[in-house]
Amino acid sequence: MTVDKRWKSGVFQIALFQGYTSHFGRRRGPDGRPEAHTGLDIAAPLGSPVLSWWTGRVVETIDDGSCGIGVVIASGGYEHIYCHLKSQRLSPGQLVRGGQVIGQVGMTGLTTGPHLPWGIRYQGRWLAPAMIIRAMIRSHQASNARSATGP
Hints:
Order of helices and strands: EEEEEEEEEEEEH
Shape: globular
Number of helices: 1
Radius of gyration: 16 Å
CATH topology: Glucose Permease (Domain IIA)
CATH architecture: Distorted Sandwich
Structural class: mainly beta
CATH class: Mainly Beta
Number of strands: 12
Mean pLDDT: 81
């Protein structure tokens, strides 16, 4: 898979990061059965600000028994999905800037503790969020190295 140059400009979603609690892919669900997990669970204190990864438009707001309170933001062919929010005040069609606060870490929907499930789809296909975060970190490290050595 090629790395989209947009990945390099992403803004990490959690200001008060505490670690990862569940990875993308197959895992054991809360009931102990194997299930597909389409996102990356990022631990953070309840009420922590959640930031938008990229600039985009809100295509859907969610309030259901699984995701809880959530939002889907489209950026080109990508959709980034945020769940279990304590609250959010976005509306479909609204423009959201990268780094803008879009909600707070909550415990809505099917969850065992405060965290942010973050998923990303490209043209309808789920991607591994950790791959995108690694690309962003490598880009920032390369940029810092170039800055340190000068032009």
